[in-house]
Amino acid sequence: MIRRGLMQPYPLNVAMLCRRVESQFPDKTVTTRRQGRDTTITCRRLMQRSRQLADALRRAGVRPGDCVSTLMWNSQEHLEAYFAVPGIGAVLHTVNARLPADTIGALLDDTRPVAMLADASLLSTLRQVRLPSSLKLIVRVADGDPGNDERAAAIDYEGLLAGGSRAYEWPEIDEQAACGICHTSGTTGRSKGVVYSHRSTVLHAMSMLFADGIALSEHDVCLTVVPMFHAVGWGFPYACALAGASQALSWRQSDPQTLAGLIEQTGATLATAVPTVWINLLEQLRSGEIDAARLRSLTRLPIGGATVSSDLIDGYAQFGIRVQHCWGMTEVSPLGLVSTRRSWLSDESWSQRRLTPGVPLPGCELRVMTPQGTAAPAGSGAAGELQIRGPWVADAYLDPSAEDGRGGGDRFDTDSDGRRWLKTGDIAQIDSDGYVRIVDRAKDLIKSGGEWISSLELESALVQHPGVREAAVVGVPDSVWQERPVAFVSLVEDRDEAQLDLAGYLASRLPRWQIPERFIVLQELPRNNTGKLDKARLRELTRGDGRHGG
Amino acid sequence: MIRRGLMQPYPLNVAMLCRRVESQFPDKTVTTRRQGRDTTITCRRLMQRSRQLADALRRAGVRPGDCVSTLMWNSQEHLEAYFAVPGIGAVLHTVNARLPADTIGALLDDTRPVAMLADASLLSTLRQVRLPSSLKLIVRVADGDPGNDERAAAIDYEGLLAGGSRAYEWPEIDEQAACGICHTSGTTGRSKGVVYSHRSTVLHAMSMLFADGIALSEHDVCLTVVPMFHAVGWGFPYACALAGASQALSWRQSDPQTLAGLIEQTGATLATAVPTVWINLLEQLRSGEIDAARLRSLTRLPIGGATVSSDLIDGYAQFGIRVQHCWGMTEVSPLGLVSTRRSWLSDESWSQRRLTPGVPLPGCELRVMTPQGTAAPAGSGAAGELQIRGPWVADAYLDPSAEDGRGGGDRFDTDSDGRRWLKTGDIAQIDSDGYVRIVDRAKDLIKSGGEWISSLELESALVQHPGVREAAVVGVPDSVWQERPVAFVSLVEDRDEAQLDLAGYLASRLPRWQIPERFIVLQELPRNNTGKLDKARLRELTRGDGRHGG
């Protein structure tokens, strides 16, 4: 009997990424563009500084299993914390800097950090936060803002580093140890903490190197615009370390001119952000405000977090830039699907699939649970809740009040074979070629006259209209139909609302009963703190209108 | 304190590959070309048959931890065993079909299989093997050879399958469980068994999908010529499953016409074999015996197992085919290095590096131990023994006589941080760009007058000569210098030995004292059972020559 393999006990951990960067890619760079100030350092120096930060935190009393929170925009210093905090076995908790102070306080109650690193420009926010008693150390990261140093406890980041050794040796952390915590965006109810392990972090980084997917390479220079406090910056900071790619970080800035300048300066080959950012940039490319030649190094835009329109895909294609539609969740580290063309698709089949979020990355398994509570047969196209499993998928939410720290039991399922599944809350279909079509968020379905209307499907149809920039559909109470859809849109510049005929446009594409009751044009659609469409706010805007009273 | 991540307990195992193939790529194919017979099946069918084989083996009494040996050439049935045997938690032991019967018997004594699958054409070999008492079941795989069915115990493979259910459900195997065993080629001393785990197998497969490396994609069709009994067929059978690539298998055949036909028929995009196979094919491409148009689908040739010449690289480049030089060992699952061009290299720098086996795959760490017993500083270029660690590197050899089953202690090292390293036995240098140069096998160094002469360096220099097809250098005893090099070469067709002036050619490239004493031209260089140059035989050929007597 030969029970076990005889292979090296090699833990998959963040230290392995640090060693790789240092030994293989010391001359790669990390560039941070803050307002009026650019900083570029080599990865050799980045790793020395990460070692210094690790050693300094350790000397300051941070122990394995302790949480260290960050309240920071995208920067070299944030990246140093990405390596240093898990590198000593502590847990990196990246706090959304756009949240109101009381919400930040609630998140810190969840994780009870012993230390916090904060951008100087965010200290005024932090001052309003009721801080947990666990917090012993606040470190101020200079970011060009004078900051407010009244909080006596705040010590300077560079001063802290100076007390750490650049010869600090990374200990070998168990791969199941906690590595980082991100909170979900919490569009419904309270944000929930996802606790990544070192193992899940490294395996997710590996998945971003696969040829069929993001295909991140040492030849890439990656501009991460998506905030590093959102779902591990979509995983790019760690994946770039594994691949050996240089990185560019735009601090809190996502305006077209800043991004174009940073792409031009660093030779960025890919850049990540939510669609709005790229819609804005595309408009300036088309108008000539930004010379396309400045983006000549850019080959692809992995886009996640919202529906992508064909106009966006076609628009960038004209400039030689490929939009890669991705689907993820904080709970999935976050990438689960990437829109890649499968070899057997005809041009026509692909053109029908390219607006979907794509196919599962190797390592992710999917199933669709029908309303009857059974898994839909593969390729059947039946709609139901999308469930996902894999080595970088969450098994529970952090619940400090539970004895085992595990919460959110109703969002996770165990099948008859004992396998665990995450319920994504998305309603989806999977076609016979493996492409997933997200029909809707379960909570965004509109129940009208005993039928479901998909707000997502309506939104997708609306953004295909050449005059529509962005669209959001909500359900409003209706005395006859129970609920009816109302559409909000923002328009492409110079478009005249009167000429749009959105109802007529939709009527040729969708059943009559699905056409929204009303179309409301807004200058900008409201967004919440995580940059997602704020449907609660839109529902408020529909209130006080007698036609829809219950 | 947050000690552990809250991610799914998702084991990395072969069942995960099976589920992926079945759910995502059912219409991909596996084609086997035997003499006079082609078989193509879909992956849907392949997986049904693998389930049947798994269930049938289970019903026949094969239990988790039991070993099942194969004595087979490359075929669909061998691939089915690759999935079915580890799929039930048993251990797949792939036996080199070219070994003599007594050696095969010794290997089986190591693993003590309960069952064996053998090609009909290999039953005559098997009949000469002293079989271990553990073996209860011999299964005959029809391969066009009448075979010899005298051995009463041999039952038919298709008959066995018929008794298994195609609805068999893969159990969830622990990722640390043994998955497969390959024996090293044993050029020195006895072959040693490497016991792969499910985890190491899956992680190695993942590494073959990385964009910087093999970059295996669902768009690929992979022709595996390297025998599936050698180092897991270099890892391609499992990596193709993870990527979703179709596979082509050439049974025991590696002649140019068979390969060209199979490439043409299946649209193979990459093909794997040792250099000799590709040297032969290139000669027929150049002579026009094989029309290059037949290989139009082929984009790259991952080559391992021996030094690659610039003539081979340039020769295939003329036909639009890229040679990817790889370095591996049975102990490394087997790939550790792949020759990829790093982004910062000039054309000239790259042309100097492309003959090296390349740079470490993400996940593999290297160090060079100098004769002084210390690790050479990174980028120093100092020569010493190459050591490697990573999640798919062996930690011990199988030793059934040891209580814990672990042997080969002297080939493995533990550093001061408790990290494990495999001693490769290769003498190497690592340059400042990360490229590894294998200077020699430790045992192939020639000690001459107190200096080391690298037989590998001499061989590399010789195969750069336009008239030389293959070269091998051995050391022979010398009364003055202790040892002196003797070179054996085979020539490119139609080349006249008299015009070569190999000594003069080398003299312009190497120090005078390194020039071999003699150059011996052979029609073909002798090879051992694993296809490697048989240096023991070459040393024999040099004996009885007074000039070199001790």
What's the short version?
The structure is a homodimer of 550-residue chains. The first copy, chain A, is α/β, with parallel strands linked by helices and 550 residues long.
Please, could you describe this protein's structure?
The structure is a homodimer of 550-residue chains. In chain A, α5 (123-127) links the parallel β5 (115-119) and β6. Chain A has 550 residues and is α/β, with parallel strands linked by helices. Chain A has 15 helices and 28 strands. The longest helix of chain A is centred in the first third of the chain and has 17 residues, at 43-59. Mean pLDDT of chain A is 91; it is low at 545-550. In chain A, 56% of the residues are buried. In chain A, strands 7-6-5-3-4-8-9 form a 7-stranded mixed beta sheet, sandwiched between helices. In chain A, α2 (43-59) crosses α3 and α7 packs across α8 (236-243). The interface between A and B is large, with 78 and 78 residues.
